[in-house]
Design brief:
The structure holds two protein chains of two kinds.
Chain A: H1 6-15, E1 20-23, E2 37-40, E3 47-51, E4 56-60, H2 65-74, E5 77-78, H3 87-90, H4 98-103, H5 111-114, H6 117-120, E6 121-128, E7 133-137, H7 149-153, E8 161-169, E9 171-172, E10 176-182, H8 187-198, E11 206-209, E12 215-221, H9 223-236, E13 244-247, H10 248-259, E14 270-276, H11 281-288, E15 291-295, E16 300-305, H12 311-315, E17 320-326, H13 329-334, H14 343-356
Parallel strand pairs in A: 1-2
Antiparallel strand pairs in A: 3-4, 4-8, 5-9, 6-7, 6-8, 10-12, 10-13, 11-12, 14-16, 14-17, 15-16
Chain B: H1 8-12, H2 14-24, E1 30-31, H3 34-37, E2 54-56, H4 61-74, E3 78-81, E4 98-101, E5 108-112, E6 117-121, H5 126-133, E7 138-139, H6 152-158, H7 165-168, E8 175-181, E9 187-191, H8 202-206, E10 215-222, E11 224-225, E12 230-237, H9 240-252, E13 259-264, H10 265-275, E14 284-291, H11 294-309, E15 315-318, H12 322-342, E16 344-347, H13 357-371, E17 375-380, E18 388-392, H14 399-416, H15 435-438, H16 441-454, H17 468-477
Parallel strand pairs in B: 2-4, 3-4
Antiparallel strand pairs in B: 1-2, 5-6, 6-10, 7-11, 8-9, 8-10, 12-14, 12-15, 13-14, 13-17, 16-18, 17-18
Helix pairs in contact in B: 2-4, 9-13, 10-12, 13-14
Classes of the chains: A alpha+beta, B alpha+beta.
């Protein structure tokens, strides 16, 4: 099914006889495998409103991400949260949609400064599991009118409703960007360097440590300001060794690789994503074994592990949570891809699903 | 203001309830003497008052849970209260309710500058959070103007903003986790000292839920390194429209100031009389603040000067020192006090798209003439969060009602141009009955479903946020 507008989509959900598999660009097959009739949002495409002077953009959920990014770039603006492109990691093809970005709460390295997708999302329209069209938030960046269902929809992977339209706060794109590169630091030292950088006043908006031992720190903004801060930051981090500098397109390419976890593209094995306290990350990585990519100053840990590894059992309790992002169908059917929740929280999540999707037809089981 | 009829069965069992609460709480944590409960009859929306049945002030999460369980099992409504600074009546009691105050939960539990996070008890004041990390070179970004008094619990309940959210976001963007007690006494943990709480974004729903989903007793907050420096510039214009256009151009140019504040002539005059900050005599002024090192600030202010020049400003005053910066901010920070000095006022909080600023300011002026009540405007222009202050005389019969009706019209205007009823103060009781202006019944139904899940009996802060007619059946069924 490929409805061409919101009313048709609502009709399709109302008329559904069984499970629906919600598809945007089909580039992010994450979670428990879902069976059911495919319902595509691709027909709900197009930028509905873009006011550069108000830093706001509204688009149909099926709008290709590339179209949104091109429109923003033409006005010297960008999405603040640098959404990850999952295609390389998951070996998928197709065109990522802005609705899919929201459903996955896909966020990149700039998370440390600009927040996640959910932090830039200011409005949403969706069709719930009964086929009811619902609207929440709006197109203004400060809004506390009623409950915030906008954030609830971000990262709900289509299990509470099918997104039809999304609104964002956007930001000016910087004039210049520089990456400082520290070589050969052990994970503990790298996390310490990243903490020192993120705790400095120099507005670091990317801090990653790669499996090859490089530690990357990104600065962007007006050219003179970036030059000043790069010097000041390098001096601030002097005890971690001399920092190399990468500029412009080369710098941008480094961060696309971090964002998309390029280090694990094509490599055999499962890919896990951990959100944790940055200073705990090296210990967790050591305990897990395998290759590690640290983003968000260590707060986001990507691990490459042998197929079928039950990482949660291996790590035991820790501050944070682990998601199995890439694994075979069989593994994803046996090891819960999404982190299990403590009983009282699980009861709340189940309660919300029962209210928003009483028939249990929207991507059923995907997040369980 | 219509409130639900107090439940006579609850009123009759007051003494029994107090005894039950005394069994589970320390003696000084239960207040039931009417002379003392009077202190909790209202918050900062002082036009509406109602003493509660009793007040509890627990010392621990466990005591909060025990008190809630007693009330839950007895079917008694509970109104959570931070510091009572809500401008929307978010903490206003009903006669059959117990006030649950978090004022005794004020400890800093863990400072983790390495991971840029702090864990606090929720009754701590907003400013005390920054105070706890200041020496280490950090601060907590959301800065509501009541920050000296307001509690983090209330900030989370209302998703509070402040003057600097254009750059740093509001409470929800700086909240990492909470310990929260549900109405039935269940304690839940959401998120923690890491980014992205995991699972469905329940933390995002709890923030801004106006104390209707649970009582937050502890919070993990994100802290940020202090900038090297900050400096404001004051720009005067001879029309509101031109000032509004300048705001839009600054944003488009790629500068991201930490604050862009706007004041119109009535507000400038009142603050000049009151605070004597030396503001120019003009129709509108902007205070734009940027951050960074000295040269970075110079560069940004240079750009802002170029942009402003295209709008023929009548004044461009760049701060050259700490003292001059303080002077530029003095009038803005005194604005509410100044207005209070000349009159009673009602402070609105609607947000509009920045592009609609000139039109909305013009319409408010026209409406003000028609109604016969003066309006002063002072607000966060960068994000479109307006604060029209309607002046009225509380001692004049009918003036409050006239003012409220006028306020409602202004908020409807905000919604008409694509904005919303409240940008940072919350709905409370104040804007409860206007919710249908912004949301269709289906949209409200979706929100009320959330409360059904967290608080099935609708006992927590029950008569707020949703129009009484919309929540009637649910509250009655409880």
């Amino acid at each position: 099914m490929r409805p061409s507008d919101e009313a048709e989509l609502a009709e399709a959900v109302r008329g559904a006889g069984g499970a629906l598999r919600i598809v945007g660009g089909g580039t992010r097959p994450v979670g428990r495998p879902v069976s059911g009739a495919a319902l595509s949002t691709a027909g709900l495409a197009g930028i509905r409103l873009y006011e550069p002077g108000a830093l706001t953009l509204v688009a149909g959920a099926g709008t290709p991400l590339a179209e949104v990014e091109a429109a923003l770039a033409a006005e010297g603006q960008r999405l603040p949260f640098e959404p990850m492109d999952h295609r390389g990691l998951l070996g998928t093809e197709g065109e990522p949609t802005i609705g899919g970005v929201v459903a996955a709460n896909a966020s990149g390295p700039r998370r440390v400064q600009a927040g996640a997708c959910r932090d830039s999302l200011i409005g949403a329209r969706f069709v719930d599991g009964s086929g009811q069209v619902t609207r929440n938030g709006g197109r203004v960046m400060k809004n506390v009118t009623g409950y915030d269902l906008v954030k609830l929809m971000a990262g709900s992977w289509g299990t509470l409703g099918v997104l039809t339209e999304v609104a964002f706060k956007v930001l000016p794109a910087p004039e210049a960007a520089t990456t400082l590169v520290l070589e050969g630091l052990a994970p503990e030292a790298a996390v310490a360097a990243m903490a020192a950088a993120l705790g400095s006043p120099f507005e670091v908006n990317g801090a990653a440590h790669l499996p090859d031992g490089r530690t990357l720190l990104r600065l962007d903004g007006f050219a003179a300001s970036v030059a000043y801060r790069a010097g000041a930051l390098a001096a601030h981090l002097g005890r971690f060794g001399a920092a190399g500098r990468v500029e412009g397109a080369e710098s941008a390419a480094l961060w696309v690789a971090v964002r998309d976890v390029a280090a694990f593209h094509g490599a055999a094995g499962n890919v896990w994503r951990l959100a944790t306290r940055p200073s705990d990350a090296p210990g967790l990585a050591a305990k897990a074994g395998g290759q590690a990519l640290y983003d968000w100053g260590g707060g986001l840990l990507w691990l490459l592990l042998p197929e079928g590894t039950d990482l949660r059992a291996k790590l035991g309790p820790f501050a944070g949570h682990a998601t199995l992002v890439r694994a075979s169908h069989a593994t994803r059917a046996t090891i819960a891809p999404f982190p299990p929740e403590p009983a009282p929280v699980a009861a709340l999540s189940a309660g919300l699903r029962a209210r928003f999707d009483p028939r249990g037809i929207l991507n059923p089981g995907l997040m369980e | 203001m219509q409130m639900p009829v107090p439940n006579p069965a609850v009123l009759d069992r007051r003494d029994w309830l107090v005894a039950r609460l005394q069994e589970v709480l320390p003696a000084d944590a239960v207040i039931h003497d009417p002379a003392e409960t009077r202190a909790y009859e209202c918050d900062a929306l002082t036009a509406y008052r109602c003493p509660p049945l009793a007040v509890v002030l627990p010392y621990t999460t466990e005591q909060v849970a025990a008190a809630l369980k007693v009330c839950h099992d007895a079917g008694v409504p509970v109104v959570p209260r931070g510091s009572g600074t809500s401008l929307a009546g978010g903490a206003m009691p009903t006669a059959d309710s117990v006030i649950l105050g978090v004022a005794r939960l004020r400890e800093v539990l863990e400072v983790d500058t390495l991971n840029r996070a702090i864990r606090v008890q929720a009754g701590i004041t907003n400013l005390a959070v920054s105070g706890a990390v200041e020496e280490a070179g950090f601060f907590y970004a959301p800065d509501p103007s009541s920050q000296l008094a307001c509690a983090i619990a209330g900030n989370i309940a209302m998703n509070s903003g402040g003057a600097h959210c254009l750059k740093y976001g509001v409470t929800t963007n700086n909240l990492l986790g909470v310990t929260m007690v549900l109405m039935d006494g269940t304690v839940v943990e959401l998120g923690g000292p890491y980014m992205d709480a995991g699972g469905l974004d329940l933390l995002g729903v709890v923030c801004g839920s106006e104390g209707q989903l649970g009582v937050v007793t502890e919070a993990w907050l994100r802290i940020l390194p202090k900038p090297e420096g900050a400096r404001p510039v004051l720009i005067g214009f001879d029309s509101n429209e031109v000032a509004g256009a300048c705001v839009s151009d600054i944003i488009k140019a790629g500068v991201l100031p930490v604050a862009i504040e706007f004041m119109d002539r009535p507000c400038i005059r009142a603050t000049e009389d009151f605070a004597k900050a030396g503001y120019p005599d003009c129709e509108a002024l902007l205070i734009v603040e940027v951050e960074g090192s000295g040269p970075e600030i110079d560069e940004q202010l240079g750009l802002i000067r170029q942009i402003a020049a295209k709008h023929a400003p009548v004044e461009f005053r760049e701060s050259g020192s700490e003292a001059e910066s303080a002077r530029i901010w003095l009038g803005r920070k005194s604005a509410f006090g100044a207005m209070g000095n000349i009159n009673d006022y009602m402070c609105l909080d609607g947000t509009i798209p920045v592009s609609a600023l000139p039109f909305v300011l013009k319409r408010i002026k026209e409406m003000s003439g028609e109604v016969g009540l003066d309006v002063a405007n002072v607000f966060h222009a960068g994000d479109g969060n307006m604060h029209p202050l309607i002046l009225f005389d509380a001692n004049k019969p009918g003036d409050l009602e006239k003012c409220e009706a006028f306020g409602a019209e202004i908020l409807k205007l905000c919604v008409e141009v694509g904005g919303c009823l409240t940008g940072e103060h919350g709905v409370g009781i104040e804007k409860r009955d206007l919710m249908t202006v912004q949301y269709d019944p289906a949209d409200l139904e979706a929100q009320m479903r959330i409360k059904d899940v967290f608080d099935p009996r609708w006992l927590l802060n029950p008569a707020k946020v949703f129009p009484l007619a919309a929540s009637d059946t649910r509250r009655a069924a409880a």
